[in-house]
Structure formats: structure tokens, C-alpha cells
Amino acid sequence: MKKIINKLSITFFLSAIFAGELELGSTIPLADIKMMDISGKMISLNDVKMENGLLVNFSCNTCPWVVAWQNRYNSLAEESNKNKIGFITVNPNTRIRDRGEGLSDMRDFAKKYKHDFLYALDKEAKLAEAFGATKTPHIYLFNGEGKLVYRGAIDDNARKPKKVKNKYLFNAIKAVANGDNIDFAETKALGCAIKFAKK
Question: Which residue, 122, 105, 92, 102, is CA-closest to 195?
């Protein structure tokens, strides 16, 4: 009886965490909406998607969690591209564009950390709202058919890379590329709350 109660508690807990988020199996929302990349080009998620899928990372410049994971961003982008999965980072922090989250700030941030991937401005946070994203970073991985197969965190230890036990995103990328099942399809995104515009 205790085991049944514990399983129900876990189910309700996970449901609460993921309430409002894009459900697994969902198609890419607003895939054709154009966003300004730091290069000056207008791009959409469909422009970025590759043969085996698309990885969307809601991120920013000012969150300590984002900074802690920076040394893993380029390697994840490389792994995605190597496995024919498009990679894009999107900044949804609409409310503080004038406090470190504007396009010029994004360019400076990308230069500082030597980013080698697309970094686009979610101008009115429409994309973040459609995805149900709440944190930076917040990851969404879609397969080649454009179906959501993973959402959540990059791994289980932002602060101490050498102590990571579960490379959730890296493993999910490999699984998608190989057509395998993903062991952890849902994890809790850890980061700063997205700064949506006040309504």
C-alpha cells in the first residue's frame, strides 16, 4: 500500500512541476515565427531544424545558472550538429531588455563565452509562452518528425561539471540520433525565472 501511495505522490509531484509545459509528443509551436539572431539575420525554428530534429534552449545573459552551464553550451551545440539536430538558444527575458538582456548584450555575452551557435531574441516572449518555458536555461528537444521527446535540464549539476552523474541532454541527443528510447524524457528545469513582461 505504501508503494502505491509513494508512486501516486511522485506522479502528482511531477504533474505539478510540468503543469502548463508543452507535452511530450507535441509538435514545435510557432515554428515559422521569425526572430532576430545576434548575427542580424531573421530566423525561425523551422530554419534551424535538421534531419534528426531540433534543440531549443531558452537562455539569457544574467542568470547565474546559465553562467554556470556556459562551458557545456558549445559542446552540446557541436554534439547536436554532429547528430544532425539543429541547435538554437533563445532569450525570452522581455521585462529586462534594458538591464542586460538586449540584443547588444546578447552579442557581448556570446563573444565573451565564444559561442558558436545561434542566439535569437524572443522579442515578446511569445515562443517561451507557447512552450510553457519558465526557467533559464530550459531545454526542449524535438525529433526528426518535429515531436517533443525531451524537456527539462541540461544535466544534474550546474555548479560542478566534474560531479555530473546524469547527462540528461547529451544522452537524449544521442538517443534521438540513434532512434533509441530516452531514459529520462522529463526532468525539472533548474534556473532563474523567465522575466516575462508584466501584463
Answer: 92
The secondary structure element, H or E, covering residue 58 is strand 53-58
Phi, psi at 82, each rounded to 5° = -60, -35
**pLDDT score at 20:** 86
> Which pLDDT belongs to residue 18?
46
Q: Where are the alpha helices (DSSP H) in 32-148?
A: 45-48, 64-82, 103-112, 126-131
What is the distance between the alpha carbons of residues 21 and 131, in angstroms, rounded to a whole number?
6
pTM of the model: 0.89
For 80-89, how does the pLDDT look when each residue is reduced to its tens digit (9 = 90+)?
A: 999 999 999 9
Helix (H) or strand (E) holding 2: helix 2-18
CA R_g for the chain: 16
Q: Which CATH class is domain 2-193?
A: alpha beta
Low-confidence ranges of the chain (pLDDT < 70): 1-19, 199
User: How many Cβ atoms are within 10 Å of 90's Cβ, its own excluded?
Assistant: 25
Domain ranges of the chain: 2-193
According to DSSP, residue 162 is labeled: G
Spatial distance between the Cα atoms of 189 and 21, rounded to a whole number of angstroms:
11
90 backbone dihedrals φ, ψ, rounded to 5°: -130, 135
DSSP assignment string, 10-30: HHHHHHHHHTTSPPTTPBPTT
